[in-house]
C-alpha cells in the first residue's frame, strides 16, 4: 500500500523543469544579444576595447586627441595659493599649474573640461584636476565647459593639488571620456 509520503512529488518536478527552462531561455537570450551586439557594433566596439593609448609627446610639442590639439607650454609646481585679494584658494599640498593651448582641429564643436585631464606622479600615482582652483587660475576667460568651434584655440591652466613632496611626471589629456588620450611627458 502506498502512502502520501511515498508518492512522487509532481509539483517539485514541474518546478525543476520550469526553472531549467527559464535558465535555458535566459542563456539563449544572452547569446542572441551578444550576436546582435557584435553584428551591430562589433568592429567599432572591438577597436574601442583593444585600442592602445594615444600619442606621446614632450612638453612644448603639439599632440592630438580626438578633436583637440594640445600643447603644454608650462608646468609650475610649488604654488601655495591661487586667486587675488578678494577670492583665493590655498593648496592642501602644493598647486601645480599646467598651462596649455587647446585648438579644435576637428570638424565639429567640442567641449574642453579640466576633469578629463589627469596628472601622474612617481609610481603611477594619479592626480585629478582641482576645478575650483582652475576657475580662479582662469579668471580672465571662460575656458571650461564651453564649446570650442573648429579652428578656434584657447589657452587654459589646469590646476592639480598634489602632496608637497610629490611631483608630476606626465599628463594625460583628453578631448572626451571616450578618446584614448594624449600623454605629455614633462
UniProtKB/TrEMBL annotation:
Coiled coil: none annotated. The keyword Transmembrane helix applies. The keyword Hydrolase does not apply. Pfam families: DUF4352 (PF11611). InterPro entries: DUF4352, Immunoprotect_excell_Ig-like. Keywords: Membrane, Signal, Transmembrane, Transmembrane helix. The chain crosses the membrane at residues 15-41. This is DUF4352 domain-containing protein. Residues 60-177 form the DUF4352 domain.
Amino acid at each position: 500500500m502506498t502512502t502520501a509520503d511515498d508518492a512522487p512529488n509532481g509539483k517539485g518536478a514541474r518546478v525543476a523543469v520550469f526553472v531549467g527552462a527559464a535558465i535555458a531561455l535566459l542563456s539563449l537570450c544572452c547569446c542572441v544579444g551578444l550576436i546582435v551586439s557584435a553584428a551591430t557594433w562589433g568592429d567599432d566596439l572591438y577597436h574601442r576595447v583593444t585600442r592602445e593609448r594615444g600619442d606621446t609627446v614632450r612638453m612644448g610639442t603639439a599632440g592630438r586627441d580626438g578633436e583637440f590639439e594640445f600643447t603644454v607650454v608650462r608646468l609650475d609646481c610649488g604654488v601655495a595659493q591661487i586667486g587675488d585679494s578678494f577670492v583665493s584658494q590655498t593648496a592642501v599640498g602644493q598647486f601645480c599649474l599646467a598651462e596649455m593651448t587647446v585648438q579644435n582641429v576637428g570638424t565639429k564643436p567640442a567641449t574642453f573640461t579640466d576633469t578629463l585631464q589627469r596628472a601622474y606622479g612617481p609610481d603611477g600615482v594619479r592626480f585629478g584636476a582641482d576645478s575650483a582652483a582652475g576657475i580662479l587660475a582662469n579668471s580672465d576667460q571662460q575656458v571650461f565647459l564651453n564649446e570650442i568651434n573648429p579652428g578656434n584655440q584657447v589657452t587654459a591652466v589646469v590646476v592639480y593639488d598634489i602632496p608637497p613632496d610629490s611631483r608630476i611626471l606626465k599628463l594625460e589629456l583628453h578631448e572626451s571620456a571616450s578618446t584614448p588620450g594624449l600623454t605629455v611627458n614633462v
